[in-house]
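Handout, page 2. Input:
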Amino acid sequence: MDFGKTSSVLYPLKGPNPVQINNRDLDGFIERFKTEGCQHTDCQSCGYCQEWSDRIVKVDPEWKSRMQPIYDDLLGEIDSGKFWDPYVKTVGEMARKVVA
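Output:
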Protein backbone atom coordinates (compact mmCIF):
# COMPACT_ATOMS: atom_id res chain seq x y z
CA MET A 1 0.00 0.00 0.00
CA ASP A 2 2.84 2.40 0.82
CA PHE A 3 4.29 1.88 -2.64
CA GLY A 4 0.94 2.54 -4.33
CA LYS A 5 0.25 5.69 -2.33
CA THR A 6 3.70 7.25 -2.45
CA SER A 7 4.33 6.46 -6.12
CA SER A 8 0.83 7.61 -7.19
CA VAL A 9 -0.05 4.18 -8.53
CA LEU A 10 -3.23 3.93 -6.44
CA TYR A 11 -4.08 7.63 -6.14
CA PRO A 12 -3.78 10.65 -8.46
CA LEU A 13 -0.50 12.53 -8.36
CA LYS A 14 -0.62 15.75 -6.36
CA GLY A 15 1.87 18.42 -7.32
CA PRO A 16 4.70 18.16 -9.83
CA ASN A 17 5.91 14.77 -10.98
CA PRO A 18 8.95 13.78 -8.89
CA VAL A 19 10.57 12.11 -11.92
CA GLN A 20 11.33 14.44 -14.82
CA ILE A 21 12.76 13.86 -18.30
CA ASN A 22 13.24 16.78 -20.67
CA ASN A 23 12.41 15.47 -24.16
CA ARG A 24 15.11 17.65 -25.78
CA ASP A 25 17.69 15.83 -23.63
CA LEU A 26 16.78 12.64 -25.53
CA ASP A 27 18.01 14.09 -28.84
CA GLY A 28 20.49 11.60 -30.27
CA PHE A 29 19.50 8.67 -28.08
CA ILE A 30 17.88 6.69 -30.89
CA GLU A 31 20.85 7.02 -33.26
CA ARG A 32 22.57 3.93 -31.85
CA PHE A 33 19.49 1.80 -32.52
CA LYS A 34 19.45 2.72 -36.21
CA THR A 35 22.53 0.54 -36.71
CA GLU A 36 22.70 -1.70 -33.66
CA GLY A 37 19.96 -3.51 -31.79
CA CYS A 38 19.80 -5.02 -28.32
CA GLN A 39 18.74 -8.59 -29.03
CA HIS A 40 22.30 -9.96 -28.74
CA THR A 41 23.55 -7.54 -26.09
CA ASP A 42 23.61 -7.84 -22.32
CA CYS A 43 22.24 -4.60 -20.80
CA GLN A 44 24.55 -4.81 -17.79
CA SER A 45 27.72 -4.93 -19.88
CA CYS A 46 26.49 -2.48 -22.57
CA GLY A 47 25.33 0.35 -20.29
CA TYR A 48 24.17 2.61 -23.14
CA CYS A 49 20.67 3.23 -21.81
CA GLN A 50 21.94 3.49 -18.22
CA GLU A 51 24.41 6.21 -19.24
CA TRP A 52 21.63 8.21 -20.90
CA SER A 53 19.35 7.68 -17.93
CA ASP A 54 22.02 8.84 -15.49
CA ARG A 55 22.42 12.06 -17.49
CA ILE A 56 18.82 13.02 -18.20
CA VAL A 57 16.44 11.55 -15.62
CA LYS A 58 15.95 13.97 -12.73
CA VAL A 59 14.46 12.56 -9.51
CA ASP A 60 13.33 14.78 -6.65
CA PRO A 61 15.73 13.90 -3.79
CA GLU A 62 13.04 14.20 -1.08
CA TRP A 63 10.71 11.83 -2.95
CA LYS A 64 13.59 9.45 -3.61
CA SER A 65 14.47 9.33 0.10
CA ARG A 66 10.81 8.53 0.94
CA MET A 67 10.59 5.86 -1.78
CA GLN A 68 13.87 4.03 -1.09
CA PRO A 69 12.75 2.21 2.07
CA ILE A 70 9.37 1.48 0.45
CA TYR A 71 11.08 -0.12 -2.57
CA ASP A 72 13.44 -2.03 -0.27
CA ASP A 73 10.50 -3.43 1.73
CA LEU A 74 8.56 -4.32 -1.41
CA LEU A 75 11.51 -6.07 -3.04
CA GLY A 76 12.24 -7.90 0.21
CA GLU A 77 8.65 -9.15 0.37
CA ILE A 78 8.74 -10.26 -3.26
CA ASP A 79 12.09 -12.00 -2.77
CA SER A 80 10.99 -13.78 0.41
CA GLY A 81 7.62 -14.76 -1.04
CA LYS A 82 5.74 -12.86 1.68
CA PHE A 83 4.28 -10.55 -0.99
CA TRP A 84 2.20 -13.43 -2.34
CA ASP A 85 0.79 -14.65 1.00
CA PRO A 86 -2.53 -12.74 0.75
CA TYR A 87 -3.08 -14.04 -2.79
CA VAL A 88 -2.28 -17.62 -1.85
CA LYS A 89 -4.66 -17.35 1.11
CA THR A 90 -7.46 -15.99 -1.10
CA VAL A 91 -6.98 -18.66 -3.76
CA GLY A 92 -7.00 -21.36 -1.07
CA GLU A 93 -10.24 -20.01 0.40
CA MET A 94 -11.84 -19.87 -3.04
CA ALA A 95 -10.75 -23.42 -3.82
CA ARG A 96 -12.22 -24.69 -0.54
CA LYS A 97 -15.55 -23.03 -1.39
CA VAL A 98 -15.63 -24.63 -4.82
CA VAL A 99 -14.89 -28.10 -3.38
CA ALA A 100 -17.44 -27.72 -0.57
